[in-house]
Amino acid sequence: MLGSEKAFIQGYNPQAAADADSQIIVAAEVTNNAADSPHLVNLIEQAEKNTGQSPQEVSLMPATTAERISKR
Fold first, then answer.
1. Of the candidates 38, 53, 44, which has an alpha carbon nearest to the alpha carbon of residue 16?
2. Of 2, 19, 55, 56, whose CB has the highest number of CB atoms within 10 Å?
3. What secondary structure, in 3-state letters, does the chain show?
4. For residue 50, what are the domain limits?
5. Global pTM?
6. Quick count: other Cβ atoms within 10 Å of Cβ 60?
7. What is the pLDDT of residues 27-52, one digit of tens each?
8. CA atoms within 13 Å, Cβ hemisphere of 20
């Protein structure tokens, strides 16, 4: 990842998906890609595979904003 001094730093970006009621992590991954959004579809697919169910709701929590997407 590119740091503030225009130098690359070794960094990792963890992603996790948790069940809203139990707060149990149902999917997770770690990458060296700074962007969060490219991992959303993969996390949803992992959660579906691990739980056998499609999520009813997905909440994203980027560093500066909170977006809420409802699957209906």
1. 44
2. 55
3. CECCCCCECCCCEEEEEECCCCCCEEEEEEECCCCCHHHHHHHHHHHHHHHCCCCCEEEECCCCCCEEEECC
4. 1-56
5. 0.67
6. 12
7. 999 988 877 778 889 999 999 999 99
8. 6
